[in-house]
């Protein structure tokens, strides 16, 4: 079912669809009066029926409020060390499917890609588009934000405001720290995950995270590629939250 995300709440049980979404519903999907679609506003999705189609807007009437809730009981913030080429696109697509709240691209000591100014802006807007289509495809109630690229120290500052932070680190031995971190997860928590680029994190970057109370954890004995590590870490938190909260 088509999922339309809006920042304007319904009035008298009706949403207005305008602009690019109007064009998409009317001319691309060729939807007609009487057909159903989902409208998401502030983390909730209402089942709606198209009531009117004019030359400029579509009016959709709510049939069932809060129809599907695909939100996780926790919020996941993925801090991703900038990887090479188009790996970030894969990471964003998969992380959004798995339920991430926000993706923060981070320039780390071993990031080979350097993004500045216009180049960085263009990348971020492309990444945001990928997040939006993955959100629609996976029936998320929100479109996760891809923030602008942060320096490592700004990323640490942002992470310091979260409730729980983990940094998967290939030199960490054993699963005790991983289990301990998972056992601390409670409903409503905001959880940060730091994943390194291909070259991994420098030791001092790992210490910067443990200094703010973060936990260095293992994702198993094998060395994972950055994109596999990101997907594994988000899946681990997602499944833990779905099963235990
Ligand atoms: N440079 C390293 C690999 C880095 S992998 C090497 O070649 O030895 C990229 C990122 O994935 C790491 O920074 C880490 O965050 C994560 N990662 C990969 N394998 C991991 C594992 N077994 N446990 C925890 N994190 C892992």
Amino- and carboxy-terminal Cα gap:
28 Å
Strand count, sense and closure of the main sheet? 7 strands, parallel
Question: In the residues, how many domains can be counted?
Answer: 2
Count of distinct strands = 12
* Distinct small molecules: S-adenosyl-L-homocysteine
The chain-level structural class is alpha/beta
Q: What's the gyration radius in Å?
A: 20 Å
Low-confidence stretches: none
Fraction in beta strands: 25-35%
Per the CATH scheme, the topology name of the largest domain is Alpha/beta knot
SSE string: EEHEEEEHEHEEHEHEHEH
Number of helical elements:
7
SSE topology:
Blueprint: E1 3-5, E2 14-17, H1 19-28, E3 36-41, E4 44-53, E5 58-68, E6 75-81, H2 87-98, E7 102-107, H3 117-137, E8 145-146, E9 150-151, H4 152-159, E10 164-168, H5 176-183, E11 190-195, H6 203-211, E12 215-217, H7 226-244
Parallel strand pairs: 1-3, 6-7, 6-11, 7-8, 7-9, 10-11, 10-12
Antiparallel strand pairs: 2-5, 3-4, 4-5
The structure holds S-adenosyl-L-homocysteine (SAH).
Residues 168-170, 195-196, 199-201, 218-220, 222-224, 226, 229 line the site of S-adenosyl-L-homocysteine.
């Amino acid at each position: 079912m088509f999922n339309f995300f809006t920042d304007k709440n319904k009035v008298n049980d009706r949403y207005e669809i305008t602009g690019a979404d109007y064009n998409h519903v009317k001319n691309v999907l060729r939807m007609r009066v009487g057909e159903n679609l989902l409208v998401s506003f502030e983390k909730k999705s209402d089942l709606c029926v198209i009531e009117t189609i004019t030359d400029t807007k579509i009016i959709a009437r709510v049939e069932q409020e809060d129809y599907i809730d695909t939100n996780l009981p926790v919020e996941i913030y993925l801090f991703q060390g900038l990887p090479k080429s188009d790996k970030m696109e894969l990471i964003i697509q998969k992380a959004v499917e798995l339920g991430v709240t926000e993706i923060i691209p981070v320039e780390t000591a071993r990031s080979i890609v350097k993004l500045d100014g216009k180049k960085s802006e263009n990348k971020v807007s492309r990444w945001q588009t990928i997040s939006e289509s993955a959100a629609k495809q996976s029936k998320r109630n929100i479109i996760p934000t891809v923030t602008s690229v942060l320096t490592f120290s700004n990323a640490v500052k942002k992470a310091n405001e979260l409730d729980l932070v983990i940094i998967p680190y290939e030199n960490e031995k054993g699963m005790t720290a991983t289990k301990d971190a998972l056992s601390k997860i409670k409903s409503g928590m905001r959880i940060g995950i730091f994943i390194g680029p291909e070259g991994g994190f420098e030791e001092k970057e790992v210490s910067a995270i443990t200094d703010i109370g973060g936990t260095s954890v293992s994702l198993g004995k094998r060395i994972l590629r950055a994109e596999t590590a990101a997907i594994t870490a988000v899946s681990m938190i997602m499944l833990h939250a779905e099963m235990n909260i």
